[in-house]
């Protein structure tokens, strides 16, 4: 099911990007990014999802593979989120990001775009003897800047929102994961494709 959803996302992105690229001659660069960041995850829990509302802080590491032209770039990404409070056993995301770059200077550019994919998580609520899991799609947006450290390396500083809106109900009690708000830094390595 996850592979099927990822295939649908990649196909949708390709179909949406095709008209934008028609008749556009461009030089393409391959990209590999290593990302680290911090996040806040909002959640709700209770019989009507209004008994407890809260948030927890997460740290994340990620890997991004992609390509860019002068104005656009796209990534396939995977991230692991670590919860120091131990509320969540694990949380991962696998998805795509498509961004438009505003080349405002030779030293840096600004980007904004959208993201989507699949979020997976496992956790246990206080007082429960069983674990809860989700595997749901997410959608969101991102914004940031790329500081050019050289011809083949960028320092990326950005923020993203991922809307998950996944509910797990067991024994008459629901637990819902809402949004992840993430700030991050990445080192992006790039080279020309033949």
* Stretches with pLDDT under 50, minimum 5 residues: none
State the helical fraction. 10-25%
The major pleated sheet works out as:
8 strands, antiparallel, barrel
Instruction: Describe the global form.
Output: elongated
Total domain count:
1
Mean pLDDT level:
88
* Shape-level CATH architecture: Beta Barrel
Portion in beta strands: over 45%
Helix and strand pattern: HEEEEEEEE
The CATH topology turns out to be: Porin
Characterization of this structure:
By secondary structure, the protein is mainly β. The protein has one domain: Porin, CATH 2.40.160. The chain is elongated and about 55 Å long. The longest helix is centred in the first third of the chain and has 20 residues. It contains 1 helix and 8 strands, in the order αββββββββ.
What labels would you give this structure?
Porin, 10% helix, 8 strands, 194 residues, 1 helix, mainly beta
Set down the secondary structure blueprint.
Layout lengths: L1 H20 L7 E18 L5 E17 L3 E11 L5 E15 L5 E16 L8 E17 L4 E18 L2 E20 L2
Question: What is this entry, summarized?
Answer:
Helix content is 10%, strand content 68%.
